[in-house]
Amino acid sequence: MEKHEINGPVHPSSSGSNGHNVRSPAHQPNFNSRAVQEALEHLASVDLSELFNEAKTEYCRATRDLRRCGRYVKYVLNSCGHASLCAECCQRCDLCPICRIPLASGNNRLQLCLFDECIDAGLISRRYGDIFQNKEDRDDQINADVQRLNSFFDVSLENNLVSLVCHYVTDICMDETAVSSDAITALLLDEKVVKDWVKRKFKNITTELQQIYYLKVGETEKSLCLLHKYSAYLASLSSILEVLESSFKGRPLAQLHDLHHLQESILKTKQHLEIIMWCIRHQFLEHVRSRHANFTSWHNLVRERKSAATARAWPDVVDRSADSTRQDGSLFIEDALANLDIEQACDQELGEESYFAFLLKDSSSFSRSKIEGLRGCYPFESLQAAVDILFLCGSSDLVVAKQAIFVYYLFDRHWSRPEEEWRDIVDDFATSFGINRHSLLESFIFCLLDDHTDEALQESFQLLPEISGPTTHPKIARVLLERQNPEVAHMVLRWSGRDDGSQLVSLSEAVTVVWVKVECRLLTEAFTYQRMLCTKVREKNFKYGPSEDGQCRCWMDWTEILVSELCCLCIRRNLVDRIIELPWNSDEEKYIHKCLLDCATDDPSSANGSLLLVFYLQDAL
């Protein structure tokens, strides 16, 4: 297969090229040759303060027949370093036309300019260099010199010399003393030149990636080495942008926004590319059988899971605001996709220039996810759709969460099949992306708990002891409770260390703990837990003021919700006679009174009215 290179040696001009140039093997430089090694050494060691001078196109300043020679200059004078004479005029002149310093004697008068040295070594296209030797191409001098500077950046990027570009930004572009009245030099000193080069380079890379992504699965394997190279290029461009962002601090917000958007696009394209390479190595799982007959059956199964979760869900007593987006009975996968904020991120990206939208190989899946919302995202129609939706949308900072969702998808696709068919695939993904066993099992347990079958639930019981600890997801205990396994839920809470009231948790987590303890008939523990937690919240309110997280206003809200939930659940479980014996304080008693009175009013034939009377008498004595 032909070996692709971005811009090199054929470099596109900003006006006449489409930026899709491909270098054939015949034009590949011989990196073992002395010329190539010396050219790269010259570039790596060049004084950055002279790099922009090396980029400027120079024409011979010698006088011929009362006119300047004007030929393209390929050499610099050893005596002074100026590129002021062509090779022919150098033989008949004794002084540099610029500084009037005498030329060196003998044959040691000249040495190749860095740009032409790179051309002779094959690092830059000779056709590209010949453009500037034609007088009719000299009108756009600024554009030409910018392209020559960009060519140095291209060679640096392709030969692991990206630090040269970073230092050019910090040492030259950010140097306030580096100024010039010459328009061309002033432009070459501006960091905007580097930003525009990064943007153009990135667009060229995505164009090449698009061509590879649209190949058939069997053909893409031949491009893996090339994809690894593009991944390295993207990492280098990202590091350059980090340096540029530091130089743009204090500039107008629009400039920083443009840089940030470009950085986000590069990072997401790189993350997407890395997953695509993994998929290519495994032939997009075409030879790994799914446990689902087809997409339709998988989609229907997810709908059944959602229906089962909604039917068994306990009410959310914490957040009942009108604008709440929380849904009772949501699946783990729904919560995960919601946390990625896919819809909002995609809307924002489509509203401005998107550098990678055309990388979406399966646009129909992407459209479905936007039309149907988060419910339309899962299950993904294919492995390609999963990669595109997850890794080309949302923030690049959430790459770990995206990988966890992808692992969930792999487990959901295979787990009930014999392990020898698929386990190596999941383990290889974890190894390739540094996912530890705890995170791997966590994604598996989320998948099993979303599955509404008893088989999946029993499988999760075997794995829960391995992941339970301080970082255990708080929703696990609630789902186990909703699936009528309060004892297992209580063990998970105990392993997590959040069941004794020694540490503050969210109010919704606290409600779950109270529910679990009541369901396990641990009423004294439930009472002690809510008392300790409300005391901690009260102390925090007095010290720092009420919480501003929108979940609760003050410690009295905590007391009302936790005591009311404890009492109401005991009423439903016929445990009221036990709770009236507990030592409630005056703040808690009014909520006990209210719950008993409401229940007695709703059902006068129940014993709640009599128990309320007993509670009043106890309180009076």
From TrEMBL:
<keyword id="KW-0539">Nucleus</keyword>
<feature type="domain" description="ELYS-like">
    <location>
        <begin position="331"/>
        <end position="599"/>
    </location>
</feature>
<protein>
    <recommendedName>
        <fullName>ELYS-like domain-containing protein</fullName>
    </recommendedName>
</protein>
<feature type="region of interest" description="Disordered">
    <location>
        <begin position="1"/>
        <end position="28"/>
    </location>
</feature>
<dbReference type="InterPro" id="IPR044718">
    <property type="entry name" value="HOS1"/>
</dbReference>
<dbReference type="GO" id="GO:0016567">
    <property type="term" value="P:protein ubiquitination"/>
</dbReference>
<dbReference type="Pfam" id="PF13934">
    <property type="entry name" value="ELYS"/>
</dbReference>
<dbReference type="GO" id="GO:0004842">
    <property type="term" value="F:ubiquitin-protein transferase activity"/>
</dbReference>
<dbReference type="InterPro" id="IPR025151">
    <property type="entry name" value="ELYS_dom"/>
</dbReference>
<feature type="compositionally biased region" description="Polar residues">
    <location>
        <begin position="12"/>
        <end position="28"/>
    </location>
</feature>
<dbReference type="GO" id="GO:0005634">
    <property type="term" value="C:nucleus"/>
</dbReference>
